[in-house]
Amino acid sequence: MDRVVFVTGGNRGIGAAIAETFVAAGDHVAVTTRTGSGPAGTLAIPCDVTDSAAVDQAFDRVEAEFGPVSICVANAGITRDGLAMRMSDEDFDAVIDANLVGSFRVARRASRGMVRARGGRIIFISSVVGLLGSAGQVNYAASKAGLVGLARSLARELGPRGITANVVAPGFVETDMTATLDETRRAEILKQVPLGRYATSAEVAAVVQFLASPEAAYVTGAVIPVDGGLGMGH
Asked: What 3-state class would DSSP assign to 57?
């Protein structure tokens, strides 16, 4: 399709699967990474989304290599889990800064070119945890819930310029992170999921690809779960 796609945290897991899907579609794809390289066929750019200057520099490079970004996927995020009563300000702030404020920094920079082009797609990767809550993850849940308000506000601000802003909310996904869980914990999780299995990263990527497609041109401000029914009704 020859679109210019920017994916944060695109070097592994869900982000890598999203990037690979766009590469397969024939797009120019750039991924940000804090360490390592990106998937085959992508332009990998070192970038810390908690640093506005680094975000600006990453976009500058993509624009110099490929042209204006037409599809921006804000996926980068971290966890620092712990019970609320024992969670430090530093651990709460770090997760909010990376997951929520970092996504804002990326979307803000992406919107400049999209406004000039009078079109574009901004897609935030949230989590079912942001809708349901999760004991021991108040910082992570708050950051992921905040993406909904961020996306819907941008949908209203940028809609007149032909720009959509949407949220994908995955449930439990087969990634390196979930692979480290012991069998007891995995079984407990699966009991909560009506479909009785984890999602694949490719299934999340397919929904992102739909939101970036011409068929989704009239979809904005939406929160689309990819969670096997775990969060239904939220």
From this structure: helix
Is the Cβ–Cβ distance between 26 and 5 less than 8 Å? no
Strand ranges across the sheet with 223-226: 43-46, 28-33, 4-7, 71-74, 120-125, 163-170, 223-226
HSE-up (13 A, CA, CB side) for residue 26: 3
Q: How many residues does the chain have?
A: 234
Tally Cβ neighbours within 10 Å of residue 226. Answer: 22
In 3D space, the residue among 87, 76, 66, 78 whose CA is nearest the CA of residue 23 turns out to be 66
In whole angstroms, what is the distance from residue 43 CA to residue 45 CA? 6
- Report CA 106 to chain centroid distance, whole Å: 11
Q: Give the residue among 66, 64, 78, 67 at the shortest CA–CA distance from 8.
A: 78
Instruction: Sketch out the chain's domains with CATH numbers.
Output: 4-172+201-223 (3.40.50.720)
Q: Which residues are catalytic?
A: 140
CA distances from 184 to 81, 110, 187, 200 (A): 19, 42, 5, 20
Q: pLDDT tens, 138-173?
A: 999 999 999 999 999 999 999 999 999 999 999 999
| 102 or 134: which leads in pLDDT | 102
